[in-house]
Design brief:
It is built from ten helices and twelve strands. The chain is an alpha/beta fold. Helix 9 links the parallel strand 10 and strand 11.
C-alpha cells in the first residue's frame, strides 16, 4: 500500500513520520509531481495536478473538518473524500464559543475597558433566559458546542438541514424552519459547512431576523459572512456585536475595518486547530478499515458538500 502526503502551508515530515508509525507496512512519502501511483493521499488544499496525476486514488483524506477546498477540485468519481470527525477540534470549538458567549453576557469587555481607565464600575446582572443561543450546524462540532453551552444554563437552539435530536436543545431543521430559528435566537453561532447553499448565509436579511441586540459568533468559514453587511448593522444598533474568527481573505488585511471597529472582536482563525497526533491516528484507522473493506465515518457527499 502506498500513501502520498501533500499539505499546503504545512510541513509534511511530522505527518509522514506519524503515519509510518501507525502503518508500518505502508510506503508513505511526500507527493512530488510525477510520483508513482498511490492508493491513498493525505492532503490539505492540494493542487489539481496531484489529482490529475493520481486518478486511481481510493481515499483522499483531509486533515481538517472543512472540505470546501477539495470540492473545488476535479476529484475522480471513485475517489472517496474523507474528513476528520473530530480529532480534538470539538472541545476547542466549545471552549471558544463558551468563552465568547460568557464574555459578552457578563460584559467583561466593558469591565476591561473601565479597568484600563481606572474606573470601578457595576453592571446589573442579566438573565440567561434572555440570551438564547442558536447554533447553525449540528454535526460533530455543533453538537459538542450545543451541549457545552447548555451546561451554563442558557437556552440552546439548533438548526440543521436535516432533523436532529439533542437532549436539552430545541432543534429546527430545513428551510421552512430557518426563519423561526433565527427569530428565537439572540446569540448566533455559525458552524455550518461551506456549500453553495450556505455561502453568504450571514447576511443583512438573516441577521436582521435575530432578537434585538443580537450577537454573532462566526467560526466556520469566512465566505459565510457578507462582510459589507455587518458594520452598518452594528452602527445602526441592529446587532450588539460580533466575534469573528474566519474571513473572506486570510490573513485579514491590516487595513480592514473589522480590526478597528469597537463592536467587533477579531481572532486569527484559531477557534480550533488540528491536533496532529489525534488526526494521524484517526486517518490511519480509516485507511486500515478501507483496506479491510470495513465502513468508515466522515465520507463526504460531493452533492451535499459535507
Amino acid at each position: 500500500m502506498k500513501i502520498i502526503v501533500s499539505l499546503t502551508d504545512n510541513r509534511p515530515e511530522p505527518w509522514i513520520e506519524g503515519l509510518r508509525a501507525e502503518l508500518p507496512g505502508a510506503q508513505i512519502e511526500s507527493w512530488q509531481p510525477g510520483a508513482l501511483q498511490a492508493d491513498h493521499a493525505v492532503v490539505w488544499a492540494p493542487p489539481q495536478q496531484l489529482l490529475d496525476e493520481q486518478p486511481q486514488l481510493r481515499g483522499l483524506f483531509n486533515i481538517g473538518a472543512g472540505v470546501d477546498a477539495l470540492l473545488k477540485l476535479k476529484v475522480p468519481a471513485h475517489t472517496r473524500i474523507v474528513r476528520l470527525d473530530d480529532a480534538g477540534m470539538s472541545v476547542q470549538m466549545a471552549e471558544y464559543v463558551c468563552h465568547t458567549l460568557i464574555r459578552h453576557f457578563r460584559e467583561f469587555d466593558a469591565y476591561e475597558a473601565d479597568a484600563r481607565e481606572g474606573r470601578w464600575s457595576y453592571r446589573k446582572p442579566k438573565l440567561r433566559r434572555d440570551f438564547p443561543v442558536g447554533i447553525m450546524g449540528l454535526g460533530v462540532l455543533g453538537e459538542r458546542v450545543a451541549r457545552a453551552v447548555a451546561q451554563f444554563e442558557f437556552p440552546v437552539l439548533g438548526w440543521s438541514r436535516s432533523p436532529k435530536q439533542i437532549d436539552g436543545v430545541k432543534v429546527f431543521s430545513g428551510e421552512s424552519q430557518f426563519d423561526a430559528f433565527l427569530a428565537e435566537t439572540r446569540v448566533l453561532v455559525n458552524l455550518l459547512p461551506l456549500t453553495d447553499a450556505t455561502r453568504g448565509i450571514l447576511n443583512r436579511r438573516n441577521l436582521g431576523k435575530l432578537r434585538p441586540e443580537g450577537y454573532l459568533i462566526s467560526i466556520a468559514r469566512g465566505a459565510h459572512l457578507v462582510e459589507e453587511d455587518l458594520i452598518p448593522m452594528l452602527d445602526a444598533g441592529q446587532l450588539a456585536g460580533a466575534t469573528l474568527d474566519v474571513f473572506q481573505v486570510e490573513p485579514l488585511p491590516a487595513d480592514h475595518p473589522f480590526w478597528r471597529h469597537p463592536k467587533i472582536t477579531v481572532t486569527p482563525h484559531g477557534s480550533a486547530r488540528t491536533l496532529r497526533e489525534e488526526s494521524i491516528a484517526q486517518i490511519a484507522g480509516k485507511i486500515r478499515a478501507m483496506e479491510e473493506g470495513r465502513p468508515i465515518s466522515g465520507v463526504v457527499d460531493p452533492v451535499r458538500g459535507y
